[in-house]
Design brief:
259 residues, alpha/beta, single chain, globular, binds adenosine-5'-triphosphate, four-stranded antiparallel sheet
């Protein structure tokens, strides 16, 4: 019962049912991939877990605790979040922005401690953005900003990390590094819930997958159980080529209609 448990989650937004009876678990030490076509409800599911959108029904628990019983500070300590393509409007340095990740652990007006500072440096090095520490985030490229925002999320040190398409806008090497970081977070005991569009990453980096389709769970289980030809054709209207290279499995989609 130490995991993040979502059961029977339903969300209606703007009068439209977006999620219906969605259930999944994220256990400590696991990377769980949330996949599905555009508009399937992936970001909405993350936002419901985080309390950014209010569910119409459902039970969301961290361990034994219902998230609605957690104060915003307690929730922020337990669930860290990498938002999708988040713009940053404040002219803060990258180091200062990453330092905001420590806010849930500080009392009001308390400055970061030496231990916090060491952690900030560590996560910025891990995400390859320590060299950007004195730059204003408003001047960074999209990929540089993404890595700084990931570092801020890691700086929280929460037992669960929710990441919404953390590899979008990154070059191929940084995409691989970010997926390795997701695995590294899990190796250190965190439960990671990550929204992905890259099916090869879903196959290679995730312990379990949840495939959303039209607001419901079409399939969940191991990558091999979920990434079947039939599920991929239903969810994405694609066929896939599959191959193994250097001991790693790859998937490349192509249009189901042959186009
Ligand atoms: N505030 C809102 N009001 C009405 N509809 C909304 C609202 N927010 C999201 N939606 C709709 O809910 C559906 C699911 O959106 P969501 O962002 O969760 O999808 P997603 O699976 O993350 O998609 P993508 O892969 O494109 O990021 C979409 O059809 C979207 O237009």
């Amino acid at each position: 019962m130490n995991g993040l448990h979502v059961s029977g989650l339903s969300v209606t937004l703007g009068g439209n049912r977006i999620l219906s009876d969605v259930s999944f678990d994220v256990e400590p030490g696991h990377v769980v991939g949330l996949i599905g076509a555009n508009g399937a409800g992936k970001s909405t599911a993350l936002k419901a877990v985080l309390g950014i959108v209010a569910p119409e029904a459902g039970d969301i628990r961290v361990g034994e605790q219902d998230v609605v019983d957690l104060s915003p500070r307690e929730r922020a300590k337990k669930l860290s979040y990498v938002p999708q393509g988040a713009p940053v409007h404040w002219p803060l340095t990258a180091e200062r922005l990453v330092g905001l990740g420590r806010t849930p652990h500080l009392t009001p007006w308390q400055d970061v401690t030496d231990a916090d500072q060491a952690m900030i440096r560590c996560v910025m090095q891990e995400t390859d953005c320590w060299h950007l520490r004195d730059r204003l985030v408003t001047t960074l490229s999209g990929g540089e900003r993404s890595r700084v925002l990931l570092a801020r999320t890691m700086a929280v040190g929460a037992p669960f990390m929710l990441a919404d398409e953390p590899t979008s806008s990154l070059d191929p090497l940084h995409q691989l590094q970010v997926m390795d970081i997701m695995r590294g977070q899990a190796a250190c005991g965190a439960g990671v819930l990550v929204v992905l569009h890259d099916l090869s990453f879903a196959l290679r980096y995730c312990d379990r997958l949840v495939l959303l389709h039209q607001g419901g769970v079409l399939a969940s289980g191991s990558p091999a159980e979920v990434l079947t030809d039939a599920n991929l054709e239903t969810a994405f209207q694609v066929k896939v080529a599959r191959w193994t290279e250097g001991g790693e499995q790859f998937l490349a989609p192509h249009a189901a209609n042959g186009g």
